[in-house]
DNA sequence: GAGACAAGTAAACAATTGCTGACTTCACCG
DNA sequence: CGGTGAAGTCAGCAATTGTTTACTTGTCTC
């Protein structure tokens, strides 16, 4: 076996802990408001190791964005158009993992590369939605898919970052119905 | 006449200039990433005056939020349900004043009072939309109104903060149609 | 015009920021 | 077992942060 006893010195493990702590901090407090010492303390790791493993605070942030992108892409899966609303409703009300990744993805850092990653992830999500719609006229469809993405993003914000009632405590069932209407209106047949 | 010669010392004027500079900086860069020196320089004003007129950086931010709230409430006006989509489309593609206020409103600062203001403005906006729908079952309607608000917020983000094509350069006409569908789906009769 | 008070300035403060370099300690291999 | 390189520590750096304090300058009134 490879991971028998938990080694007291494990580069891979500390890297992972740093990433996890950073994701939570960046997601909750934003980039500028988060200090590398906060992250290191949360991870139970020395501050200097951030620079060793990620070169800089910005490097760590970019790694977080990449992770969030993969996570979102994975969680999206391949869902037919009819199932999209329910999927969004589930993930918004579920373990709060997806909203967290989403809110992380929306945090700005002033870093150019971070912006690039952000844009790429968002655009690819929209394209995935558009593909599920299976329509011609790809440009109009893509715009409508991006509007659905906008709804999802706004939903995450109004539940996670600045909770507003009754939306904040609505269950998956409460959300699925109106979200279904939106999906139908934006991308439904005809 | 009251404003004959532009006085070189005018508390009201410098207050105004500070607020304007702060709104732009906070809106574009976020709270934590903006320094009081940035704001003061933009306003062409001494840094210490921020603390004199607004007590603290947080005080200045709260003043900005209040201003954004009034501005948004004013720009919303009283629009019948059928006109909402067009109104949103206009303001998103117009002078970029409204998206700027919106993105300012969504910036977090860790300040408790700021959160309170934010929440109040957002909730009152949602209530205004719900009222325009003129439906019974106020709770379900309010949730649907908040979903439309979520769409608007996400739209502002995907045009202003992290521009995504083709949504970012879509004109008012391009937006009005799909937005109309969303409004109809969420709050339309039946 | 002189005095008085508000408006604006300059400098410095204590704290915090991201980051670095020299050091120590552990784990593994021959 | 011993040494060798990676993993982790420590202290401190230079820069920047929000804020305050003591000061100067403008402007209005009597």
TrEMBL record, chains A, B:
Record key words, sorted: DNA-binding
DNA-binding among keywords: yes
GO molecular function terms listed in the Swiss-Prot or TrEMBL record: DNA-binding transcription factor activity; transcription cis-regulatory region binding
This protein's record includes keyword DNA-binding: yes
Residue ranges of the annotated DNA-binding region, renumbered to this chain: 35-54
SUPFAM superfamilies named in the record: Homeodomain-like, Tetracyclin repressor-like, C-terminal domain
Pfam families with a match to the protein in the record: TetR_C_16 (PF17920), TetR_N (PF00440)
Protein name per the record: TetR family transcriptional regulator
């Amino acid at each position: 076996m490879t991971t028998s006893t938990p080694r007291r010195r494990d580069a891979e493990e500390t890297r992972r802990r740093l990433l996890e702590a950073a994701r939570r901090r960046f997601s909750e407090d934003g980039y500028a408001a988060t200090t590398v010492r906060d992250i290191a303390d949360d991870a139970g790791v020395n501050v200097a190791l951030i620079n060793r493993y990620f070169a800089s605070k910005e490097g760590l942030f970019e790694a977080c964005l990449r992770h969030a992108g993969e996570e979102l892409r994975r969680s999206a899966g391949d869902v037919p158009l009819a199932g999209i609303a329910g999927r969004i409703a589930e993930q918004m009300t579920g373990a709060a993992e997806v909203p967290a990744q989403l809110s992380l993805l929306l945090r700005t850092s002033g870093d150019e590369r971070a912006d690039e990653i952000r844009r790429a992830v968002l655009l690819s999500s929209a394209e995935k939605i558009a593909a599920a719609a299976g329509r011609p006229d790809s440009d109009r469809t893509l715009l409508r898919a991006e509007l659905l993405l906008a709804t999802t993003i706004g939903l995450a914000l109004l539940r996670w970052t600045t909770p507003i009632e009754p939306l904040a405590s609505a269950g998956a069932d409460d959300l699925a119905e109106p979200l279904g209407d939106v999906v139908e209106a934006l991308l439904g047949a005809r």
